Amino acid sequence: MKDHQNVPLNDFIEYPVNEMQTRANDFLANSQRRHSIRSFSDRAVPKEVIEACIKAAGTAPSGANHQPWHFVAINSQDVKQKIRQAAEDLERSFYEGRAGEEWLDALKPLGTDANKPYLEHAPWLIAIFSQKKGGIHAEDKNTNYYVHESVGIATGFLIQALHHAGLVTLTHTPKPMSFLSDICGRDRDNERPYMLLIAGYPTADATVPEHALVKKDIAEIATFL
Ligand code: IYR
Question: Entry's InterPro entries (predicted)?
């Protein structure tokens, strides 16, 4: 018996080339409206929306299809407050010098600081964990491959899914992030916090740093041979 079996690809959709171009352009225009936002409204977002976006993230390609990720979606005020407290404590020492001069200079045009009120006010925080061991079944304990790449792709899918749904996000990486394992009750041996995503509605007066709107030209980011 073969150790692999395939099924026909029956959900591929072919578009005429002109429609393909329109779709690519539309996707670009929609992507250009995605911004990292730092002022979140406390307006509620249904759990089912977050669930659908996490399911979309779960369709990402991964090494040997082991899906080496776990998403902890946090709506609990108590848990959000604990995360804010721990993150702000770390960020204070970061901004007070731990980051080093070069890093702090690079952040100046973004205007960030140690205050992270959105960690408490946004309706959803999504803590993303990567898994060293796993497999196609959640209970497997095999080696995972290309873990960073896989979780990075899934996180990208999640950001796009939330944007597509009509929400704004912020990627947040307090350093070190190990406090997230304890607060979220995750296994420290096998799982590593990868990123914290904040998701919700922007406040009416939300702004975007000009610095963040500067995107490299196609000639700078791509080479066609
Ligand atoms: N984690 C800190 C610092 C920070 C680091 C980078 I690199 C950014 O692009 C933005 C912020 C903070 O969230 O303030």
Answer: Nitroreductase, Nitroreductase-like, Nitroreductase/BluB
Please choose from 90, 102, 112 the residue to mutate so as to test ligand 1's pocket, defined by most ligand atoms within 8 A of CB: 112
Residue 27 lies in a domain: no
Q: pLDDT digit string (tens) for 178-213?
A: 999 999 999 999 999 999 999 999 999 999 999 999
Q: Which domain holds residue 63?
A: 36-213
User: In whole angstroms, what is the distance from residue 90 CA to residue 101 CA?
Assistant: 17
Would you tell me how many other CB atoms lie within 10 Å of the CB of residue 194? 24
Q: How far apart are CA 154 and CA 59, in angstroms?
A: 8
Question: Residue 193 sits in a domain of what CATH number?
Answer: 3.40.109.10
Q: Whose CA is nearest to atom 1 of ligand 1?
A: 174
Q: Is residue 6 part of a domain?
A: no
Q: Which residues have any ligand 1 atom within 6 Å of their CB? A: 91, 107, 110, 112, 172-174
Q: What is the pTM of this model?
A: 0.97
In a domain, 16, yes or no: no
Residue 145 lies in a domain: yes
Long-range contact pairs involving 44-48 (C-beta distance under 8 Å, separation at least 24): 44/123, 45/123, 45/124, 45/167, 45/199, 45/200, 45/201, 47/73, 47/75
- The total domain count for the chain is 1
